[in-house]
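Methods — Computational structure assignment.
A single polypeptide chain was analysed. Its primary sequence is given first, followed by the predicted tertiary structure written as structure tokens.
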Amino acid sequence: MAPVTEVSLHLKDAPDLKHASFCLKHCENLRGKGRVPGQRQCVKVRGSGCQAVSCSDTTQQWADFSLALEANRSLKCLDLTASELLDESARMLCTTLRHPKCFLEKLLENCRLTEACCKELSSALIVNQRLTHLCLANSNLGDGGVKLLCEGLSHPDCQLQNLVLSHSNITRRGCRRLSKLLQEDSSLTNLDLGLNPIATGSWYLCEALQKTNCNLRCLGHSEGLEKSARIADGLQQSGLQGDTASAGIQ
């Protein structure tokens, strides 16, 4: 196949996802970046120039797509924003992340994942040491999902640096888990917890921020003025950056 440097696929039906899989499998020299205007259910593969938009989510199609991801060694960023992945499809993606030929560095999954996928994702965070950026915004992970993710994040082989958990139904219990993680010399340097009902969970975050072994450099949050002041005090004492308007980590 002749060298291809950039391709944009606008998929309108289920069979088109197969075309995207073929593209990923055989276009090994993709470069550049681009976006496809948002659709409600879509998959965007970007960062290496190849984009795919799908209006379906069947097991076999995602199985083919996952295999194609393994074959493409130039792809660095996978954007699944606005998709609604089934749990089984998400598990397939995690299997791909654990594959030694997966070269993804950024995974953006604003696609309403649930706690059911977090155990496999946690395992992938340990195995895939290339992955440094993970966005799970607008999901229904809850505190249970955070607990499972922390198992992987606390592993010494995990190299994740940027984690976005905004609008993921996380409460003070989840914050307590994250606080413990941040005090264990975690690789995380950027954390976004905006638009979560953390309530008094801000106390746990402040506790972690004041520890000398906390590597966090940027905290995104969205709280009331009083709670924001508490977090700001913790940020000031630890020399970190924060945003009371919930800074998204791009």
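Note: The chain has a mean pLDDT of 75.
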